[in-house]
Amino acid sequence: MTATAIYPSLKDRVVFVTGGGSGIGASIVEHFCRQGAKVGFVDINQEASEKLVRDVEAAGHGKPFFVNCDLTDIEALRVAVGQVREKLGPITVLVNNAAHDQRHAIDEVTPEYWDDRIAVNLKHQFFAAQAVYPDMEKAGGGAIVNLGSVSWMIGQGGMPCYTTAKSAVAGLTRSLARDLGPKNIRVNCVVPGWIMTQRQIDLWLTPEGEAELLERQCLKRKLVPADIARAVLFFASDDAGACTNQSYIVDGGWV
223 - beta bridge partners? Predict the structure, then answer.
């Protein structure tokens, strides 16, 4: 891992990450563990998540605590929050990372599919915040970092349910920041551009897409999960103590 900032305020802090088993989420888990934080994460992919736990431990960092959870089941999410709290202590950092950018055409969308995509990409962010903010309030403060997407900002087509949900994350962030600010709980949104996770490479990256990326980004390189994880660390740390109610774009200058 490239030498990057260490945030003393994150050491021993209890962090809850959704969708932490692979991609951007796995990088977020790894980076918090490197900071000395106590990390609990949920994911539906048990095999990938258990491998991540082994890899982080083998790298000499604190072992993250994994709970298998389908985030569309809000009661299961609440149970998972309780398990992490019982195992690691009161949660003072929440990273709402979980999402799924499945492509879909307008004519293929049914009411049931619409509800499912909102559940996968938006609904759990609110209920995770609802479940953890009492811990933060009792601790005298905390940080929530929601993950958005530039897809709706650039008018990307081919997945209207996803872009609708991700645009709503910006509104959720601002609402939670206003309501939780008096409790010294900061709420920000990190907005990734096109990040080269293995899933993106396998499913969506084409020579034409790569050419467009390099043409439209100011930075002429592919962005990787660590680029997002480092921004999340900052907003979770006390170094960002005056930052809330913001959406911070990490897209290499595409938007």
Answer: 195
